[in-house]
Amino acid sequence: AQSVTQPDIHITVSEGASLELRCNYSYGATPYLFWYVQSPGQGLQLLLKYFSGDTLVQGIKGFEAEFKRSQSSFNLRKPSVHWSDAAEYFCAVGAWNGANNLFFGTGTRLTVIP
Amino acid sequence: EAGVAQSPRYKIIEKRQSVAFWCNPISGHATLYWYQQILGQGPKLLIQFQNNGVVDDSQLPKDRFSAERLKGVDSTLKIQPAKLEDSAVYLCASSLVAQGELFFGEGSRLTVL
């Protein structure tokens, strides 16, 4: 069965510092992996996705993620965090088995301090 | 391009009452999804439509939840009767094709007292 683990419930970083959000997945086939961001009271916005090919994926807002099959990980990174990055971040794995079902992790809440 | 529209944004009801949520997907998107997001959890798929047919409703509590997508465009999710544990944000999403990128609406927050 598919599952996603985001081990960090809450992370606090200083503005300008680097960021890494962890994501580990469990999936029996080739995974399709996503990172979404959710600001308070808003829907989810896609940051980036991995389907195949280059394991380092570039997304919007300066984010990137690296797929590591050996570690079953898809960690999200940003070299310099901005105050506007404060939000909830969700990692998801896609199961294309007749249905387009995304399995989400429980999320990591990012707080940015000046 | 207009995004996914949902209404109402907020709803407070008492347990055993009924509630309905409406979703209008992005124009031309064939696939529509309803997700339930309980506080502190990630979204969980309730039902997926391809045009006006159901692709996956395996996690929809069918004794109280129902959803329809008449004419393959907008959709309604109904809960009757509501339970306390139904308190959540109900997210609607759409995609152009079945395996395409999902675009989410802002959600409908339900509080059951």
Individual helix count of chain A: 0
* Fraction of residues in helix of chain B: under 10%
Overall residue-averaged pLDDT value of chain A? 91
Shape of chain A: globular
Averaged pLDDT of chain B, please?
93
Structure description:
- The complex is a heterodimer of chains A (114) and B (113).
- Chain A is mostly beta strands and 114 residues long.
- In chain A, the strands form three sheets. In chain A, strands 2, 5, 6, 10, 11 and 12 form a six-stranded mixed β-sheet that branches. Chain A has a four-stranded antiparallel β-sheet with strand order 3-9-8-7, with no helix packed on it. Chain A has a two-stranded antiparallel ribbon with strand order 1-4.
- In chain A, β5 and β6 form a beta hairpin.
- Chain A is globular.
- The model of chain A has no long low-confidence stretch (mean pLDDT 91).
- With 113 residues, chain B is mainly beta.
- Chain B is 0% helix and 49% strand.
- Chain B has no helices and eleven strands.
- In chain B, strands 2, 4, 5, 6, 9, 10 and 11 form a seven-stranded mixed β-sheet that branches. A four-stranded antiparallel β-sheet of chain B has the order 1-3-8-7, with no helix packed on it.
- Chain B is globular.
- Chains A and B meet through β6, β10 and β11 of A and β5, β9 and β10 of B.
Question: What are the main properties of this structure?
Answer:
heterodimer; A: 114 residues; mainly beta; 6-stranded mixed beta sheet; 0% helix; B: 113 residues; 7-stranded mixed beta sheet; 4-stranded antiparallel beta sheet; 11 strands
